[in-house]
């Protein structure tokens, strides 16, 4: 077992005496080499779970274990790829990728060789001297992935890494991420709000309910790789996940717009019956 | 520029004021008389102005360096610890509103009339702006960069050096710029009141000798140095950061 969350709760203080219950009794287990997606509507606490595993945040109660060890703070065995990449704009691509390696007391030459290897894996071997602002969104995310991979982490945590990219770039990066996963056999936890993305990439999809966030259901994706979105298994699964996700969406929307809000309106149910029979 | 210079010349030659009060810039009012230009050139050749400039600049640089180091340190502490922010941070705002020359009497009593007193007011004049700017810069480092660095294994001093400092460079440059301006004001006031050597001292001499041509020459020197600093140092820093980060340019 690579990652193990036991009865994790998280509350954030809100105002003076109030608090926001974000995560409730989360039990989550990820096996070594597994590719797991965490799917849920925005605000359901999926990024909070990732931050807890990364050690950037601490649970209010419960424990987080990685490799059987309790998580106490950030560590290089769990590297995060952030939605906005998080590349340092004052460093060029190569320096960004070697940043973590040099912290491991690796010699400069060795670090650069390893970084080149990582950059070639994401097809950016020719952009070592470029600065992040000179790259496109997709290229930045490739660099961020390379920066994480060269650290050789036990668990790769990905926080909606492709959410800000255009559709074409995303499709290409989906393919490449699958290839990287098959090649390296890393354990990956992938956060997303995109059902198709979750189904295309992962072996297991965990659906989260919201307010407070909890794990609602788990779906195993038994489709052959490379995944094809028109695969009947995926299409069926997408429908099932969608209908469950809609319940959660409705809950959020009702909280925001009041109880009168319904995601699916019914003409029969909503018809005004006050004047029924007036014409008789 | 031409308009200003010719207006000045006309007023100077109109005999509204005595020549010593309103010396001509380029053309002497009477044969062999003083002009600002000739005083300026003679001052440069004789080394009087150059020497004084050297004295002032070396004081300025030392005081400024002290202010930058102190400002960065205070700024870092304020951004890092809440209680420092509540105490020192509040105090700094009050201190910043005190013109640094106000410290001079105190400095004279503490350090005597001389170099150290002048360094003291230069440093104290520039430190607070630097503190305010650097703490703002440090506080506004995006948490994304901090989190990214921390998951890659950085912490403590390494994190401060490799992430917090470079990420706040745009704030720091504007801090340096304002601090530099404050340092100039402080050093001129200090030297006027009690410095030996230096441009301020020369100014005071110009006043007592009633030679406004000297005073105006010194003003020109200060203007030139200010322009050079701004264009060659601060602008260049800003431009190189903008180019590297892909902002603006």
UniProtKB/TrEMBL annotation, chain A:
Q: Which Pfam families match?
A: ABC_tran (PF00005)
* CDD domains reported in the protein's UniProt record: ABC_NrtD_SsuB_transporters (cd03293)
Q: Name one GO molecular function term.
A: ATP hydrolysis activity
Q: Which UniProt keywords apply?
A: ATP-binding, Nucleotide-binding, Transport
Checking SMART domains in the record gives: AAA (SM00382)
SUPFAM superfamilies of this UniProt entry? Answer: P-loop containing nucleoside triphosphate hydrolases
Instruction: Specify the ABC transporter domain's residue ranges.
Output: 3-237
Q: Which PANTHER family match?
A: ALIPHATIC SULFONATES IMPORT ATP-BINDING PROTEIN SSUB, TAURINE IMPORT ATP-BINDING PROTEIN-RELATED
Protein name, as recorded = NitT/TauT family transport system ATP-binding protein
The species this protein was found in: Geomicrobium halophilum
């Amino acid at each position: 077992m690579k990652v193990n969350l036991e009865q994790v709760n998280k509350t954030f203080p809100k105002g003076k005496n109030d608090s926001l219950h974000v995560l409730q009794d989360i039990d989550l287990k990820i096996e070594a080499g597994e590719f797991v997606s965490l799917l849920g509507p925005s605000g359901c606490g999926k990024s909070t779970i990732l931050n807890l595993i990364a050690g950037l945040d601490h649970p209010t109660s419960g424990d987080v274990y990685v490799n059987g060890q309790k998580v106490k703070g950030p560590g290089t065995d769990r590297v995060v790829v952030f939605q906005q990449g998080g590349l340092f704009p004052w460093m060029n691509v190569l320096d960004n990728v070697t940043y973590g390696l040099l912290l491991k007391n690796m010699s400069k030459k060795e670090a650069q060789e390893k970084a080149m290897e990582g950059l070639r894996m994401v097809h950016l071997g020719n952009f070592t001297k470029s600065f992040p602002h000179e790259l496109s969104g997709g290229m930045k995310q490739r660099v961020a992935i390379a920066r994480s991979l060269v650290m050789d982490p036990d668990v790769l945590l990905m926080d909606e890494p492709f959410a800000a990219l255009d559709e074409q770039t995303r499709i290409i990066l989906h393919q490449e991420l699958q290839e990287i996963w098959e090649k390296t056999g890393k354990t990956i936890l992938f956060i997303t709000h995109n059902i198709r993305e979750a189904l295309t990439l992962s072996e297991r999809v965990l659906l989260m309910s919201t307010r407070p966030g909890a794990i609602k259901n788990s779906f195993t994706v038994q489709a052959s790789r490379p995944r094809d979105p028109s695969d009947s298994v995926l299409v069926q699964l997408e429908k099932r996940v969608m209908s469950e996700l809609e319940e959660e969406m409705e809950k959020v929307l009702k909280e925001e717009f009041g109880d009168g809000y319904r995601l699916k309106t019914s003409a029969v149910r909503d018809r005004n019956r006050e004047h029924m029979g007036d014409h008789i | 520029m031409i308009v200003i210079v010719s207006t000045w010349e006309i007023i100077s030659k109109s005999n509204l004021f005595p020549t010593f009060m309103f010396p001509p810039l380029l053309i002497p009012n009477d044969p062999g008389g003083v002009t600002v230009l000739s005083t300026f050139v003679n001052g440069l050749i004789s080394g009087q102005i150059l020497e004084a400039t050297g004295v002032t600049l070396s004081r300025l640089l030392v005081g400024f360096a002290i202010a930058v180091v102190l400002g960065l340190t205070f700024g870092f502490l304020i951004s890092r610890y809440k209680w420092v922010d509540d105490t020192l941070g509040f105090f700094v705002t009050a201190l910043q509103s005190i013109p640094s020359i106000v410290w001079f009497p105190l400095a004279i009593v503490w350090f005597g009339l001389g170099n150290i007193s002048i360094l003291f007011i230069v440093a104290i004049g520039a430190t607070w702006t630097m503190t305010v700017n650097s703490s703002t810069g440090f506080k506004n480092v995006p948490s994304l960069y901090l989190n990214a660095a921390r998951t890659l294994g950085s912490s403590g001093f390494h994190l401060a050096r490799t992430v917090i400092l470079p990420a706040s460079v745009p704030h720091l440059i504007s801090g340096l710029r304002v601090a530099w301006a404050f340092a100039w004001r402080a050093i001129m006031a200090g030297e006027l009141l009690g410095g030996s050597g230096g441009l301020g001292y020369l100014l005071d001499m110009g006043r007592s000798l009633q030679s406004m041509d000297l005073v105006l020459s010194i003003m020109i020197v200060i203007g030139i140095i200010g322009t050079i600093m701004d264009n060659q140092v601060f602008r260049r820093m800003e431009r190189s950061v903008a180019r590297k980060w892909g902002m603006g340019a």
